[in-house]
Amino acid sequence: MRIDPMGQGMGARRRGFGLGSIRWIVMIGFAIYAAVSWMGSAKKDPYTGETAHYGASTDEEVQLGAQAFDQVIGDAQAQNALMPADAQVSQQIRGIAQRLIQRVPDVTQALAAEHGAPAPEDYRNFQWDVAVIQSDDANAFCLPGGKMAVYTGLLPVAQNQDAMAIVMGHEIAHALLRHGSQRMAQQKLVQMGQMAAGVALGGMDPNQQRAVMGALGAGAQYGFILPYGRNHESQADEVGLMLAAAACFNPHEAVPLWQRMSQIGGGQRPPEFASTHPDPENRMARLQQLMPRAEAFYQKYCGTAPRQ
Description:
mainly alpha
């Protein structure tokens, strides 16, 4: 009988990597890559002091925001919904935006100093602009890079320029905090997790595979994606309130504003754990807690206390 150099006979079964082992190796590889990518994108957010993860550069954000804004404006023009720049409402909204933008450097410097971080200068590359769009939607947005839009449906809800400034400050804060880039990093992590799970479950019965993937998707949604969104909204509330106060808009309009916002649609909304936004009551309580800081910003930059 021929002897194998390793001491095994010809009839001995060779051990190697089976399909299951290969799946686990690939899955572990995905997990390591995702973890390294996620941790490698971590930086201290100077506006909040929290750890943040970024999936795109500021220049990429500005470019993507400009492209999205062009699409929005094009659609509004096609529907004859874009308000003329010389319309009274456009001039009023533009005036609010200008006051807020002028205070961005001051608020950026102040918040970064509070958290012991260098003041970022990403906003210096922003392409600030604002448009007013005729629509029943009570909404506004600020895209990465500073392009803004306000829908006329927001006007009767805001009721006054102080409340409108609080909404617009909130939206500008999303751009300053680079929440678009942070969501890109989050989406990349979730996609990597889905790919790893798909490899690991490759040999499973299709019905079982769908059930497991559905459960994993729900876990990611409720345990990671939605809380991530709620935290972004809370951050934008805080930074936006300070920005509005520094621009001499009355911060005390914040709570009545969100009371009115909470009544849109009859006040019906999913529970907080199933939403990207904080519960209105929790949101208003948090804004009330922030009011002394907002009053201090108002006092510093406006030379007087805001009216109660």
